[in-house]
Amino acid sequence: MNHSSSSRPAGRCTLVGAGPGDPELLTIKALKAIQAASVLLVDDLVSDAIVAHASPTARIVYVGKRGGCKSTPQAFIEKLMLQAVLDGDDVVRLKGGDPFIFGRGGEEVEHLRAAGIEVEIVNGITAGLAGLTSLGAPLTHRAHARGVVFITGHAKPGADDTDWVQLATTAHALRLTLVIYMGMRGAAHIQQGLLQGLPPQTPVAVIQHATLPGQRHAVTTLATMQATIDTEKLASPSVIVVGDVVQGVAAWAAAPAQAQHAA
To answer: What angle do CA 162, 168, 172 make, to 5 degrees?
Structure first.
């Protein structure tokens, strides 16, 4: 961007949830925002089929952030967003899932508002919901789960680790479904903690690349979760769903003691 911010009126910024990957799960509002954008800052997990809806004249900047891989610094992304708005562009920050569920959308909104820029938010379907739904099971059920907890398995550097034992104890007492994002690298540690508060036979679903053509999943128990991940060679990006609602997966009814997976 090589023109001064004073040469054009300020543009606008929209944080858009691209959903779990399937372009048909975009909202109409998200689609319109993508098509209207002059600059798109795109997360690593946003599929090419969704980016294809952008205008041919739009400038597309990939600012990937994925656990275990080299990532674009968050401060740099926020600087790009602000400068593009000041340059008069219609900026869309395109994020996988929902911008406000583990997407750092809150940090970006705070940064822009501190500079006097208002931001519009367009929600997207989060992978934790879409993943289990793709297997035909709900996150809540009157007979199995009274609520759901979305939680990250990857704490901010320097922050205290999640008390998985306490979380498991609470989930068992209140009959809650646990949906764990970014938990694959620490799955063994998470499993160890959860087993101290939840029965070992608690059903677990691990869904990789939810809603995309290459989706794979495994249905197992908490006691065998890590072994199943290893056997099935599941990896990030995946969501881990823990709770009795997983019994709704048809594969579970067919073979409750064995992992079921989609090729």
So the answer is: 155
Extents of the domains making up the chain: 12-122, 127-254
Q: Is 232 helix (H, G, I), strand (E, B) or coil?
A: helix
Residue-wise pLDDT tens digits, 207-216: 999 999 999 9
- pLDDT tens digits for 39-52? 999 998 899 999 99
Beta carbons of 123 and 151 less than 8 angstroms apart: no
pTM for the structure as a whole: 0.88
Structure tokens at 5: 């911010």
pLDDT, one tens digit per residue, over 51-91 is 999 999 999 999 976 554 567 888 999 999 999 999 999 99
CATH of domain 12-122: 3.40.1010.10
Residue 110, classed as helix, strand or coil, is: helix
Interatomic CA distance for residues 126 and 25, integer angstroms:
10
Residue type, 188: A
Q: Which two tokens stand for residue 18?
A: 């691209």
- Residues noted as catalytic: 43, 65, 182
DSSP per residue, 174-229: HTEEEEEES-STTHHHHHHHHTTTS-TT-EEEEEESTTSTT-EEEEEEGGGHHHHH
What per-residue confidence (pLDDT) applies to 88? 96
Output the CATH code of domain 127-254. 3.30.950.10
Query: Which two structure tokens, joined as six digits, stand for 95?
Result: 């994020």
